[in-house]
Design goal:
This protein is an alpha+beta fold and 204 residues long. 36% of the residues lie in helices and 25% in strands. It has 5 helices and 10 strands, in the order αββββαβαβαββββα. The strands form 2 sheets. The chain has an 8-stranded mixed β-sheet with strand order 1-10-9-4-5-6-2-3, covered by helices on one side. A two-stranded antiparallel sheet has the order 7-8. Helix 2 links the parallel strand 4 and strand 5. It is globular, with a radius of gyration of 22 Å.
Length: 204
C-alpha cells in the first residue's frame, strides 16, 4: 500500500526533474549573437517608464523608442574629450547603410548647464538627426538605474564642475528594450559591423 501511494509522487518528481533539466539545457544552449565590439544580452531587457524632454521641450518617454533601434549615450556638452569623440563616431556611423533607421540619443547628465538651447546647438555641430534629451536628476535616476549607468558631479576649483559618467553605448531594440551594451573602445566601423550582424541574425 505504501508503495502504491509513493509511486505517483515518484513519477511526478521524475517529470519535474526532466522538465527542469530541459529548461536548463535550453538556457545553456540558447544561441547568443557573437559581436566584435559589443555584448548582447541573453534576452532583451525591458526598461521601466521614464520621462525626459527634448530640446524643443516635448516629452520623451518609452513610447518614443518603439519602431526603430536606438543608440543611447549619456554625456554633457562641456565634456572636454570623451563625449565629443563618441559623438563624432556616432555621426560617422549614421552615414553608413547598416545604420539606416537608427535613432541616436544624447542624454545630458548636466541639465543645470545644458539648457535646451545649449544642448541643441551642441548636437547640431555633429548631426541634426541626433536627439538631445534632459531631465532633472531625480527624473533621470530611473533611466540610469535601468541601464546600470552612473553619473556623478565633481566640483572643481574656481566654481567649475565636471562629471564622471558611463562611457557606454546602449543599443535598444525596436520595442525599446535593452539589447546590446557597447563598452569603449569602439569605432564606427565596429559598430556598423555589429549592427549588420544583429540585423542579419537576431533582428532589432
Amino acid at each position: 500500500m505504501k508503495l502504491r501511494r509513493l509511486l505517483p509522487l515518484l513519477l511526478l518528481a521524475g517529470l519535474a526533474g526532466t522538465l527542469a533539466g530541459l529548461f536548463v539545457a535550453r538556457m545553456l544552449t540558447q544561441r547568443t549573437v557573437a559581436l566584435q565590439g559589443g555584448t548582447a544580452l541573453p534576452g532583451p531587457r525591458a526598461l521601466e517608464p521614464f520621462l525626459l524632454t527634448d530640446t524643443a521641450g516635448r516629452p520623451f518617454t518609452n513610447e518614443a523608442l518603439r519602431g526603430h533601434p536606438t543608440l543611447l549615450y549619456f554625456g554633457f556638452t562641456s565634456c572636454p574629450d570623451v563625449c565629443p569623440a563618441t559623438l563624432a563616431k556616432l555621426r560617422d556611423l549614421q552615414r553608413q547603410s547598416s545604420a539606416a533607421g537608427l535613432q541616436v540619443l544624447f542624454v545630458t547628465v548636466d541639465p543645470e548647464h545644458d539648457t535646451p538651447a545649449v544642448l541643441g546647438q551642441y548636437l547640431a555641430g555633429f548631426s541634426r538627426d541626433f536627439i538631445g534629451l534632459r531631465a532633472a536628476p531625480a527624473a533621470l535616476a530611473p533611466l540610469l538605474r535601468n541601464l546600470d549607468a552612473f553619473a556623478g558631479r565633481k566640483d572643481l576649483p574656481g566654481g567649475q564642475h565636471s562629471f564622471d559618467h558611463s562611457a557606454t553605448l546602449y543599443l535598444l531594440d525596436s520595442r525599446g528594450r535593452l539589447a546590446v551594451v557597447f563598452t569603449p573602445p569602439f569605432t564606427a566601423a565596429l559598430l556598423a559591423a555589429d549592427l549588420r550582424t544583429l540585423a542579419a541574425g537576431a533582428g532589432l
